[in-house]
Amino acid sequence: ETGVTQSPTHLIKTRGQQVTLRCSSQSGHNTVSWYQQALGQGPQFIFQYYREEENGRGNFPPRFSGLQFPNYSSELNVNALELDDSALYLCASSLGGLQGAVSGNTIYFGEGSWLTVV
Amino acid sequence: AQTVTQSQPEMSVQEAETVTLSCTYDTSENNYYLFWYKQPPSRQMILVIRQEAYKQQNATENRFSVNFQKAAKSFSLKISDSQLGDTAMYFCAFVALHRGNQFYFGTGTSLTVIP
């Protein structure tokens, strides 16, 4: 049990639609990052939020966007869904801020949201 | 840009034996952290071991140890006394200093422990 909850766990969308995925982490976790994990691949970094602002972005188009709320929960939004967006989406949170890895703060991963685009 | 390479897509080991998983990485950063994560079928990422790049001493956690060669940019994981519960996907990952949770992962090695 990591205290990081992602919802929904599974969903199916049609190409061209929009989707919102949610991540709820432990109290005080001010840093959250999102990853896309295609079948048989390693997770790919999408972006990171620190204190409600985007701080770092991977090689993903602007139709991937996000939000972090004052309670540090987070959303990942994907517009104009494409078939290749089918993947497991993981979020990871910690309370260490950008010093997370330095300070040794534990980074918690959720169990992910499975998105299938048809 | 950072890249992480795992050249062994699949490996197997007999229960109680030792196995080594390979990882190489490329970066222009001087200060960073390396991790090995385990991902069982539940898809939950579980931290196995963590290494600070500025430390020359290799990290160990019970049956798990690493061989960190900074000059060669190599970071292998050794699992001793393999157990059935070690069966999972293993990912090598890199995080630069002051980058929070911005991980770069390899493509993974699927490890099967054979009874």
How would you describe what is shown here?
With 118 residues, chain A is mostly beta strands. Chain A is built from 1 helix and 11 strands, in the order E-E-E-E-E-E-E-E-E-H-E-E. In chain A, strands 2, 4, 5, 6, 9, 10 and 11 form a 7-stranded mixed sheet that branches. Chain A has one helix at 100-103, and strands spanning 5-7, 10-13, 19-24, 31-37, 44-50, 53-57, 64-68, 74-78, 87-94, 108-109, 113-117. Chain A starts with a strand and ends with a strand. Chain B is built from no helices and 12 strands. In chain B, strands 2, 5, 6, 10, 11 and 12 form a 6-stranded mixed sheet that branches. A 4-stranded antiparallel sheet of chain B has the order 3-9-8-7, with no helix packed on it. Chain B has a two-stranded antiparallel ribbon with strand order 1-4. Chain B has 115 residues and is an all-beta fold. In chain B, 0% of the residues lie in helices and 52% in strands. The model of chain B has no long low-confidence stretch (mean pLDDT 93). Chain B has strands spanning 3-5, 10-14, 19-21, 24-26, 32-39, 46-52, 60-61, 64-69, 74-79, 88-96, 104-105, 109-114. Chain B is globular and about 40 Å long.
